[in-house]
Design brief:
The complex is a heterodimer of chains A (164) and B (340).
Chain A (H helix, E strand, L loop, with lengths): L1 E9 L4 H11 L3 E13 L2 E9 L3 H13 L3 E9 L2 E9 L3 H14 L2 E8 L9 E9 L2 H18 L2 E5 L1
Antiparallel strand pairs in A: 1-3, 1-4, 2-3, 5-7, 5-8, 6-7
Chain B lengths: L1 E5 L3 H12 L1 H8 L4 E6 L3 E9 L1 H11 L5 E2 L3 H7 L4 E4 L9 H12 L3 E4 L2 H17 L4 E2 L11 H7 L5 E7 L2 H11 L4 H10 L8 H4 L2 H14 L10 E2 L7 H9 L2 E10 L3 E9 L10 E8 L4 E7 L3 H21 L8
Parallel strand pairs in B: 1-2, 1-5, 5-6, 6-7, 9-11
Antiparallel strand pairs in B: 2-3, 3-4, 8-10, 8-12, 10-11, 12-13
The chains are: A alpha+beta (164), B alpha/beta (340).
Chain lengths: 164, 340
């Protein structure tokens, strides 16, 4: 799930790292951090962190750790479940073609995050591989994306390999 | 119980040998012998109402290339003349027309004979018609070995897991493709891996049915019809083979701790065969020629089975399990004797 938290930490050296470290220790993935030194309340500064964490149980543990470190949780919101899938596309294409394809997909499916990696063209072959990792907010979105990519790849002669 | 074997190639001979090796077990279980009264290859046949020696049939085939001394032009004539109880149909598969196997199975079912087959073509093309014919004539059509060889999946789903709601089956249903992709994991190019598979006898000289996913698609159709009660045919499967899987695609998957495997997938609405990205350590990430399937059920959760997808004795073992199921049913339900 993706979580957004607003924290207030003491304005002392090491407090920022001290508030983010527990997320990594609980196998979370930090998506974004805003360290707002302008927003000071009771000698504490505001940190807004967006992160991905496995489930409610891990989130509760994280909250306990923050409390034990005297970190004040002023807001915990925008909590939602994400569904991830990886796709591999193999064919004669360039990066723009795939980025356009994912751009078109984002028009019909709510994509929370995308990550595209490419292989370099090997030797004389024009064949290339792209690995696309996506996160969506529903399984239905993943199914819709699967149908979209499958259809588009068949039309373009690109081999489409889905994850399980 | 009297058996007629149609097709006396690798699997037919394997079954004859298995039957000979299980003679004591079968006679103790049923109090009578189960005998082969006829066998047929592509040109010749042998028939003896008193029974034929299984190992002699195998020896004759090996020595002369023929299972019998008499030639035939229409297998239906032979099947109509011989009196048998169970037809074991193991002639070569033809996934375009159903081949001779389709005619043989139909002929036996029309006569009210039970049939065991591992022949995918007739089942992938005419499953519903054949099952309806069997039902109409009060006989059984069993086909455990048609999917996954020795891997018990059909009878597991339809008998062992009969109380479950099965929501999906995903699996590796073609050992040749899995062998090639496993070799590519180790850095071999596709062409070299295919050549090696051919040299080892895993792939045919013409490997199209395997590497284009057609063989796996037949198995997916059989599972959809038999386990999910669907009425689908080969043409309904969305098929992608493995011929366009490149070395760098395999390497890129490995860099993300994954492998590429040809997966057949069946649900209430899905019917697919295609390459998939599988995390290493997942039950479907296995290497080599093994077949494996993951059955998702509502009560038992995921059930995974694995086994040798092909082979003389392995496929014969699946036929034996069907034969025992038929013999048990005959004794248990309708009081039919074993006709010895």
């Amino acid at each position: 799930m993706i979580v957004n938290a607003e924290l207030f930490v003491k304005d002392l050296p090491g407090q920022l790292v001290g508030s983010l470290e527990p997320i990594s220790l609980l196998d979370g993935n930090i998506v974004e951090v805003v360290h707002n030194r302008e927003k000071i309340v009771n000698h504490r500064i505001c940190i807004n962190v967006t992160f991905e964490i496995e489930g409610q149980e891990q989130l509760c543990r994280l909250k306990d750790v923050w409390k034990s470190k005297d970190i004040i949780i002023s807001r915990l919101g925008s909590v939602y479940q994400t569904y991830s899938m990886e796709y591999m596309l193999i064919g004669d294409f360039d990066g723009k073609r795939i980025e356009d394809l994912i751009g078109e997909a984002s028009g019909i499916v709510n994509l929370d995050a995308t990550d595209i990696r490419y292989s370099s063209k090997a030797g004389n072959s024009s064949m290339r591989t792209a690995m696309v990792a996506v996160k969506t907010r529903s399984e239905e979105d993943l199914e819709m994306l699967d149908r979209f990519l499958d259809r588009k790849c068949r039309e373009s002669g690109i081999t489409y390999v889905r994850g399980v | 119980m009297r058996i007629f074997i149609c097709g006396f190639g690798t699997v037919g001979q394997g079954f004859a040998e298995v039957l000979a090796s299980r003679k004591k077990f079968l006679s103790e279980r049923y109090g009578k012998d189960i005998i082969i009264i006829g066998a047929m290859d592509s040109r010749t046949f042998a028939c003896d109402p008193a029974g034929l020696d299984p190992l002699s049939l195998v020896s004759r085939k090996k020595e002369t290339g023929k299972v019998g001394g008499k030639e035939y032009s229409d297998p239906r004539d032979v099947l109509s003349e011989c009196d048998y109880d169970v037809l074991v149909e193991v002639s070569p598969t033809d996934i375009k027309t159903g081949g001779a196997g389709l005619g043989n199975i139909t002929c036996a079912l029309e006569r009210g004979k039970d049939v065991i087959t591992v022949n995918k073509g007739p089942l992938a093309l005419r499953y519903r018609e054949l099952m309806d014919l069997a039902k109409k004539n009060g006989c059984l059509l069993r086909y455990e070995g048609s999917v996954g060889g020795a891997m018990p999946i059909i009878n597991l789903c339809t008998e062992g897991l009969v109380g479950e709601k099965i929501t999906s089956i995903r699996g590796i249903f073609n050992g040749t493709c899995n062998y090639i992709l496993s070799k590519m994991d180790k850095g071999q190019p596709f062409d070299q891996a295919l050549k090696e598979a051919q040299q080892l006898g895993y792939a045919e000289t013409n490997p199209t049915n395997d590497i284009e996913g057609y063989d796996a698609a037949c198995k997916v159709v059989i599972l959809a019809n038999s386990v999910f009660g669907r009425d689908v045919k080969f043409d309904d499967v969305r098929i992608t083979g493995i011929t366009s899987i490149t070395d760098e695609a395999v390497a890129m998957a490995a860099s993300r701790n994954m492998v590429i495997r040809l997966i057949g997938e069946v649900t209430e609405s899905k019917l697919e065969v295609g390459p998939r990205l599988i995390p290493k350590g997942h039950p479907l990430s296995i290497s080599g020629t093994l077949n494996t399937a993951q059955i998702i059920t509502d009560l038992a959760g995921p059930v995974t089975v694995s086994g040798r997808g092909a082979g003389r004795t392995e496929t014969a073992s699946a036929i034996l399990s069907d034969l025992i199921a038929i013999a048990d049913r005959r004794l248990r339900t309708d009081g039919k004797s074993l006709h010895l």
